[in-house]
Amino acid sequence: MANRQATGYILLFATAICIVCGILVSSFAVSLEPLQDENAALDKQKRVLEAVGLLQPGERVTPEEVAERFEPIKPVIIDLATGEAQADADTATFDQQRRARNPSTSVELPKNRASVKRLPDQALLYEMRGDDGELEMVVLPIEGLGLWGTLYGFLALDADTTTVRGITYYTHKETPGLGGEVDNPRWKARWPGRRAFDEDGEFQLAVIKGQAGGAAEDPFRVDGLSGATITSNGVTNMLDFWLGERGFEAYLARIRGEAN
Question: Which of 135, 143, 134 is nearest to 165 (CA)?
């Protein structure tokens, strides 16, 4: 009978336990991956619905209700350089972050205030249309560096491509109670009615230090996040980037042209 106190036996037993546990963990991870992907996609849909005002923050809805409310919203993949829709692209499998990491489908950017390191050639956005087919809103993916990491979210603009309808974030690493207040419904409620561009088409929207006025009298400014200046600046920088030349400028210009 083996001596259970022997060093070799203990090492062998520990190794066997590690192998078995590793196999079990790997098996669970693989089997749960489709469910995790499905939940991530559902969460993104909820965030888009929040941005356009079809879902209230914290509202409990079933996947079926999410799908029903999402019916007027169409995912669209565009070429960032031209703003043109890519009709042959598969929106169901499109992964913008993975595309940005791939050197064959992205370009490395010079240093910028949003700290976006690589820009994909294509992006997935959402268009909300009425029963008559008229464009009502566009929902743009936005990302940029905060204090502790990259924030990922959505910005909804009116069909005029300048009036904000909503903003929301689905992934970030900001400090709860400080930069994490980007998730606070009270702060997000201050965005509708703000304007991204002035009459000359220049980007003006900024999260300021302190309090801003109402959307009517102070359309280009939003209250800062108390104690989170770096996160507040990060929000301003990412909006400036994604609404600018490297981001969705070509797409927004095309939308304006179609409206005239």
Answer: 135
- pTM reported for the whole predicted model: 0.85
Q: Decide if 98 is inside a domain.
A: yes
Query: What does the pLDDT look like over 87-134, one tens digit per residue?
Result: 899 999 999 999 999 999 999 999 999 999 999 999 999 999 998 999
| Segment 130-163, tens digit of pLDDT | 989 999 999 999 999 999 999 999 999 999 999 9
Q: What is the largest CA-CA distance in the chain?
A: 89
Amino acid (1-letter code) at residue 233? N
Q: Round to whole Å and give the CA distance between 176 and 69.
A: 30
Q: Could you identify the residue written with the tokens 């590793």?
A: 22
| Single-letter amino acid code for the residue at 36 | Q
Containing structural domain, residue 139: 73-259
Residue 23 maps to a domain: no
Cα 196–121–84 angle (5° rounding)? 65
